[in-house]
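Render YfiT family bacillithiol transferase in 3D.
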Amino acid sequence: MRQVDGGSVKMDGKEFIMDLLSYPIGQFAAVQEPTDEQRTQFIEAIAEITDKFRQAMDGLGLEQLKTPYRPGGWTVQQVVHHLADAGMNSYIRFKRGLTEDRPIAGTFREDLWAELNDYMDTPVETSIMLLEALHTRLATLLVGLKSLDFKRSVISPTHGEMTLDVALQRYSWHARHHIAQVTSLRERLGWKK
Protein backbone atom coordinates (compact mmCIF):
# COMPACT_ATOMS: atom_id res chain seq x y z
CA MET A 1 0.00 0.00 0.00
CA ARG A 2 1.25 3.47 -0.75
CA GLN A 3 -0.27 6.92 -0.45
CA VAL A 4 -1.10 8.40 -3.86
CA ASP A 5 -2.40 11.78 -2.69
CA GLY A 6 -4.27 13.13 0.33
CA GLY A 7 -7.48 11.32 -0.56
CA SER A 8 -6.43 8.02 -2.09
CA VAL A 9 -4.09 5.09 -1.66
CA LYS A 10 -2.67 2.57 -4.13
CA MET A 11 -2.75 -1.16 -3.23
CA ASP A 12 -1.80 -3.99 -5.58
CA GLY A 13 -1.98 -1.63 -8.56
CA LYS A 14 -5.47 -0.39 -7.66
CA GLU A 15 -6.30 3.06 -6.35
CA PHE A 16 -8.72 3.36 -3.43
CA ILE A 17 -10.26 6.48 -1.93
CA MET A 18 -9.32 6.75 1.76
CA ASP A 19 -12.90 7.58 2.81
CA LEU A 20 -14.07 4.29 1.29
CA LEU A 21 -11.39 2.42 3.22
CA SER A 22 -12.34 4.17 6.47
CA TYR A 23 -16.11 4.13 5.93
CA PRO A 24 -16.98 1.26 3.58
CA ILE A 25 -20.70 1.51 4.48
CA GLY A 26 -20.69 5.32 4.53
CA GLN A 27 -20.88 7.82 7.37
CA PHE A 28 -23.50 7.48 10.11
CA ALA A 29 -26.87 9.07 9.38
CA ALA A 30 -29.68 8.76 11.93
CA VAL A 31 -33.32 8.08 11.17
CA GLN A 32 -34.96 10.95 13.04
CA GLU A 33 -38.28 9.37 14.01
CA PRO A 34 -37.84 5.60 13.64
CA THR A 35 -40.90 3.38 13.66
CA ASP A 36 -41.19 0.47 16.05
CA GLU A 37 -40.43 -1.81 13.10
CA GLN A 38 -37.22 0.08 12.26
CA ARG A 39 -36.21 0.03 15.92
CA THR A 40 -36.72 -3.74 15.96
CA GLN A 41 -34.46 -4.04 12.90
CA PHE A 42 -31.70 -2.07 14.66
CA ILE A 43 -31.97 -4.36 17.69
CA GLU A 44 -31.92 -7.48 15.51
CA ALA A 45 -28.82 -6.14 13.73
CA ILE A 46 -27.08 -5.89 17.12
CA ALA A 47 -28.05 -9.47 17.95
CA GLU A 48 -26.43 -10.62 14.65
CA ILE A 49 -23.12 -8.78 15.12
CA THR A 50 -21.10 -11.60 16.65
CA ASP A 51 -22.12 -14.09 13.95
CA LYS A 52 -21.19 -11.58 11.25
CA PHE A 53 -17.91 -10.78 12.95
CA ARG A 54 -17.05 -14.47 13.23
CA GLN A 55 -17.78 -14.87 9.51
CA ALA A 56 -15.58 -11.88 8.70
CA MET A 57 -12.75 -13.34 10.80
CA ASP A 58 -13.12 -16.93 9.55
CA GLY A 59 -9.79 -18.44 8.56
CA LEU A 60 -7.63 -15.40 9.28
CA GLY A 61 -4.16 -16.19 10.54
CA LEU A 62 -1.96 -14.22 12.92
CA GLU A 63 -0.27 -12.27 10.11
CA GLN A 64 -3.65 -11.25 8.73
CA LEU A 65 -4.90 -10.21 12.19
CA LYS A 66 -1.87 -7.91 12.44
CA THR A 67 -2.72 -6.21 9.12
CA PRO A 68 -4.18 -2.68 9.24
CA TYR A 69 -7.52 -2.35 7.47
CA ARG A 70 -6.20 0.86 5.83
CA PRO A 71 -2.91 2.81 5.85
CA GLY A 72 -2.50 4.36 9.29
CA GLY A 73 -5.50 2.41 10.60
CA TRP A 74 -5.88 -0.23 13.26
CA THR A 75 -5.04 -3.84 12.68
CA VAL A 76 -7.87 -6.34 12.31
CA GLN A 77 -7.12 -7.53 15.84
CA GLN A 78 -7.36 -3.99 17.23
CA VAL A 79 -10.70 -3.49 15.45
CA VAL A 80 -12.15 -6.60 17.13
CA HIS A 81 -11.00 -5.56 20.61
CA HIS A 82 -12.19 -1.99 20.01
CA LEU A 83 -15.68 -3.23 19.17
CA ALA A 84 -15.82 -5.10 22.50
CA ASP A 85 -14.73 -1.96 24.39
CA ALA A 86 -17.23 0.17 22.49
CA GLY A 87 -19.95 -2.40 23.24
CA MET A 88 -19.28 -2.26 26.97
CA ASN A 89 -19.37 1.53 26.92
CA SER A 90 -22.58 1.53 24.88
CA TYR A 91 -24.29 -0.90 27.24
CA ILE A 92 -23.47 1.33 30.23
CA ARG A 93 -24.63 4.38 28.24
CA PHE A 94 -28.05 2.77 27.70
CA LYS A 95 -28.39 1.75 31.35
CA ARG A 96 -27.47 5.24 32.53
CA GLY A 97 -29.78 6.85 29.98
CA LEU A 98 -32.66 4.75 31.27
CA THR A 99 -32.01 5.40 34.95
CA GLU A 100 -30.63 8.96 35.08
CA ASP A 101 -31.84 12.29 33.72
CA ARG A 102 -29.70 13.24 30.70
CA PRO A 103 -26.44 11.80 32.08
CA ILE A 104 -23.11 12.68 30.58
CA ALA A 105 -22.21 9.48 28.78
CA GLY A 106 -18.75 8.20 29.44
CA THR A 107 -16.27 8.15 26.63
CA PHE A 108 -12.88 6.56 26.25
CA ARG A 109 -9.62 7.30 24.48
CA GLU A 110 -10.07 4.57 21.89
CA ASP A 111 -6.81 5.55 20.17
CA LEU A 112 -4.86 4.96 23.39
CA TRP A 113 -6.85 1.89 24.44
CA ALA A 114 -5.96 0.31 21.08
CA GLU A 115 -2.27 0.58 22.01
CA LEU A 116 -2.57 -1.26 25.35
CA ASN A 117 -1.18 -4.76 25.66
CA ASP A 118 -4.59 -6.47 25.98
CA TYR A 119 -5.29 -5.44 22.38
CA MET A 120 -2.03 -7.07 21.31
CA ASP A 121 -1.95 -10.13 23.58
CA THR A 122 -5.59 -11.26 23.88
CA PRO A 123 -6.99 -13.68 21.29
CA VAL A 124 -9.73 -12.07 19.19
CA GLU A 125 -12.15 -14.85 20.12
CA THR A 126 -12.11 -13.54 23.71
CA SER A 127 -13.55 -10.21 22.56
CA ILE A 128 -16.03 -11.91 20.24
CA MET A 129 -17.31 -14.05 23.16
CA LEU A 130 -17.52 -10.90 25.29
CA LEU A 131 -19.58 -9.22 22.55
CA GLU A 132 -21.83 -12.26 22.32
CA ALA A 133 -22.65 -12.15 26.04
CA LEU A 134 -22.93 -8.37 26.03
CA HIS A 135 -25.28 -8.32 23.05
CA THR A 136 -27.51 -10.93 24.67
CA ARG A 137 -27.89 -8.61 27.65
CA LEU A 138 -28.24 -5.49 25.51
CA ALA A 139 -30.85 -7.03 23.19
CA THR A 140 -32.85 -8.27 26.21
CA LEU A 141 -32.76 -4.76 27.68
CA LEU A 142 -33.72 -3.05 24.42
CA VAL A 143 -36.55 -5.43 23.50
CA GLY A 144 -38.19 -4.73 26.86
CA LEU A 145 -38.31 -0.96 26.36
CA LYS A 146 -41.33 1.10 25.34
CA SER A 147 -41.19 3.65 22.53
CA LEU A 148 -41.12 6.48 25.06
CA ASP A 149 -37.99 5.01 26.70
CA PHE A 150 -36.07 5.58 23.46
CA LYS A 151 -36.83 9.31 23.71
CA ARG A 152 -34.70 9.57 26.84
CA SER A 153 -31.32 11.12 26.17
CA VAL A 154 -27.68 11.05 27.11
CA ILE A 155 -25.06 13.71 26.54
CA SER A 156 -22.05 12.43 24.65
CA PRO A 157 -18.80 14.41 24.89
CA THR A 158 -18.15 13.58 21.22
CA HIS A 159 -21.67 13.65 19.70
CA GLY A 160 -23.61 16.02 21.94
CA GLU A 161 -27.07 15.25 23.27
CA MET A 162 -28.68 12.23 21.64
CA THR A 163 -31.77 10.19 22.29
CA LEU A 164 -31.49 6.50 23.00
CA ASP A 165 -33.10 6.05 19.56
CA VAL A 166 -30.06 7.69 17.99
CA ALA A 167 -27.68 5.85 20.34
CA LEU A 168 -29.24 2.55 19.22
CA GLN A 169 -28.80 3.42 15.56
CA ARG A 170 -25.26 4.70 16.10
CA TYR A 171 -24.22 1.50 17.89
CA SER A 172 -25.75 -0.71 15.21
CA TRP A 173 -24.00 1.32 12.48
CA HIS A 174 -20.71 1.32 14.41
CA ALA A 175 -20.54 -2.47 14.52
CA ARG A 176 -21.52 -2.89 10.86
CA HIS A 177 -18.95 -0.23 9.98
CA HIS A 178 -16.10 -2.17 11.63
CA ILE A 179 -17.22 -5.51 10.21
CA ALA A 180 -17.22 -3.92 6.76
CA GLN A 181 -13.67 -2.65 7.31
CA VAL A 182 -12.55 -6.24 7.84
CA THR A 183 -14.59 -7.73 4.99
CA SER A 184 -13.50 -5.04 2.53
CA LEU A 185 -9.85 -5.63 3.51
CA ARG A 186 -10.36 -9.35 2.83
CA GLU A 187 -11.80 -8.56 -0.58
CA ARG A 188 -9.04 -6.08 -1.51
CA LEU A 189 -6.26 -8.47 -0.51
CA GLY A 190 -7.97 -11.60 -1.84
CA TRP A 191 -8.05 -13.42 1.50
CA LYS A 192 -10.19 -16.49 1.02
CA LYS A 193 -12.25 -18.17 3.71
